[in-house]
Design goal:
The chain is mainly β and about 450 residues long. Helix content is about 5%, strand content about 45%.
């Protein structure tokens, strides 16, 4: 089993499409590239206990890079010839079959400002007697006006086993620090075999806490939050669904929070792998039980056949602030000396700051070498020179992606003194408008977001 923190929660993978139209076509053909979004892979369940097979749905979208102009209605061509020997296709109303293995689907226009449109959602079902392990590709191409696409594809296979999954819970915004909330999802089995037991993994970021620590769960705290591993004894049969409700406390230091959870069929090996080398502590509260939300059907047990929907992420944002403050330094030396200037980013709270989705630095600082000095040997993984030819002596350095409340992070900047200039100084300031994590959106006091380095 793969580490659940590395599983991708998204089911759609963008497949690159190219190509503008020929000649002096309209603006959309010259400036826009089309893209097809389709599932990268899906596994069709084989026959279940009563001989039937469950249907999988493939949803396909068409998008473009530039949304300034109108793109006319187009066509999506779907070729299922590679899977026809083991799967049956159910075409939607907007798709016209040209043969038993090929259909052309009408794609709506994209008005100016629209980046993507749905193209087709069709069903796939394994044929009776389909060989477990059979596989092939559904292939796509698209055209809209004079813009055409490179091919895209979805790998389709057949397998026997449970297929546990979690529904995607809504993102939450405007939470009040000190309050409570919950993440509600449905744990279901869309495979053709029963999962006799389930291994549930939960992770709440630093500004959240678990309202309960259940006796059938193990817990550990870490720098960016807390995790839980739970063993659920309820058997989950094909067609069965259970309500999963995780109560969370919103800390006084909460700001940009994240909750992750995943489900897998239980095995001793899977539990040991997910425990890793960390130390876990068993909870002492009431046992975590699941509440059925759908009728069950009997089946046997096997590994999960399609883990793409086993993992989900929910972002939870609180109404809070964090005051970042920069501290500078004074250094001195003779010509030829190399001295170390230090710049410190303080987080005065009350919130911690973390970019747990985009992975952006909490703060990026910008500075120039003071007069008479040269910047030497900055760590390349954290600092870089400006790419602007007009500012060859400008540099940037970034913090890690999180900074706890009341914590600080210090940059060490080596400066070679080429010549002594009394009172040489430079200003270090945060870049407040990073599109991935904008400081001005959470920092109520930007006046203290600069400092000085003074040499001699």
């Amino acid at each position: 089993m793969k580490d659940p923190r590395r599983l991708l929660g998204a089911a759609l993978v963008s497949c690159a499409l190219a190509a503008a139209g020929v000649g002096a076509g309209p603006a959309y053909a010259q400036e826009n590239q089309l893209w097809i979004s389709a599932p990268y892979e899906t596994v069709l369940p084989g026959a279940d206990a009563d001989g039937g097979a469950r249907e999988r749905s493939l949803a396909v979208e068409v998008s473009r890079d530039v949304a300034d102009d109108r793109v006319p209605a187009g066509r999506l061509t779907v070729d299922v010839s590679e899977i026809a020997s083991f799967a049956r296709v159910a075409w939607p109303a907007n798709c016209e079959p040209e043969s038993e293995v090929r259909a052309v689907c009408e794609v709506p226009e994209m008005p100016a400002g629209t980046e993507r449109v749905p193209a087709a959602a069709f069903g796939l079902r394994a044929l009776p007697g389909a060989d477990v392990g059979a596989s092939g590709y559904v292939r796509y191409s698209a055209v809209a006006g004079e813009a055409t696409s490179h091919p895209a594809e979805t790998r389709v296979g057949v397998g026997n086993g449970p297929d546990l999954g979690l529904s995607q819970a809504d993102y939450q915004h405007g939470l009040r620090p000190g309050s409570r909330t919950s993440v509600r999802a449905t744990l279901s089995n869309s495979g053709n075999r029963t999962a006799e037991r389930t291994l549930l993994w939960l992770n709440a970021s630093y500004g959240l806490r678990f309202e309960q620590r259940h006796t059938n769960c193990e817990y550990r705290d870490h720098d960016t939050g807390r995790s839980a591993l739970c063993v659920l004894d309820e058997a989950v049969a094909p067609g069965q669904g259970y309500a999963l409700n995780t109560g969370l406390g919103v800390g006084r230091n909460a700001l940009y929070e994240r909750f992750d959870h995943s489900v897998h069929p239980y095995s001793d090996e899977a539990l040991e792998e997910m425990r890793g080398d960390w130390t876990w502590t068993r909870g002492t509260g009431a046992e975590l039980d699941l509440r059925p939300v759908a009728a069950a059907r009997a089946a046997a047990a096997d590994p999960d056949i399609d883990p793409q929907d086993n993992y989900r992420t929910v972002m939870l944002n609180a109404r809070n602030t964090a005051d970042l403050k920069l501290g500078g330094s004074r250094v001195g030396g003779a010509a030829g000396d190399t001295v170390t200037a230090r710049v410190t980013v303080h987080n005065r709270g009350p919130a911690w700051v973390a970019s747990l989705g985009a992975g952006a630095a909490v703060a990026t600082v910008r500075f120039q070498a003071p007069e008479g000095t040269t910047v030497m040997g900055l760590p390349e993984e954290d600092c870089w020179p400006s790419e602007d030819p007009a500012s060859p002596t400008t540099y940037y350095c970034k913090t890690p992606i999180y900074l706890h409340d009341k914590a600080s992070y210090t940059f060490e900047i080596p400066l070679r003194i080429d010549r002594v200039v009394r009172g040489a100084r430079t200003t270090v300031a945060t870049v407040n408008d990073d599109s991935e994590l904008s400081i001005r959106e959470f920092d109520p006091n930007l006046r203290n977001n600069s400092a000085r380095i003074v040499v001699n």
